[in-house]
């Protein structure tokens, strides 16, 4: 196998935020559920560690993983393995970031999301600046809700010029041209998120070089197609890996449509596919915004 990209999602579903657009807001896992999640993650980490081929991993937990020590340890461990090309995680940055000092920063990356109303702005911005000072590779994002627009503009002005700020279209929202222009002024790639992508019958890397894995090791082509390809731990998934078209009418999530071959997003994101960092992109500058860049700390 030349390379396998794995999107891992264990049973963890607890989160310390209560975003109104998220079904997992303020959910609490029981101690037994947390122990099961930890055991599942440690089993997965051991499997990746024993691989004899290149692997990249994106952790996509329903909840917030980095407040749990076992996720931080997994990221550190995997980042030091020579056959792991990239290990990344989606996070709200509510955790301390000093743990990244123990990771190999040539392989580690973070996909961070800012949730206005859940964390003081200066605290989140401070975490971003801390990551930047440490040399951690990361992107920052926000959901494109009307009440988030001012916060997004402020964040774009205050982040460093080479930090990509992505905008996810709010689920179910129809954007008019004026709204689209506003969000595109913040994220030039926002139009990719504006509408679901027609995908049925289109060639996709999922199920071939990209797979989704749950806590039991069940392998599917992606998070959005329920058909099972096999199991990670008994190796039964390997014979199912092959080129295949998408069976769904549409794909509306970045971690899904980035792998659709006709969109050519592997060229757009190059080695930043998992952490959502474009290879070459002229980012909006702050001079046309009413906000000014806060002084560097």
UniProtKB/TrEMBL annotation:
What is the annotated signal peptide range for this record?
Answer: none
Q: Which InterPro entries match?
A: Aldolase_TIM, Radical_SAM_STM4011-like, rSAM_sf
Task: Give the protein name, as stated in the record.
Answer: STM4011 family radical SAM protein
List the source organism.
Actinomadura monticuli
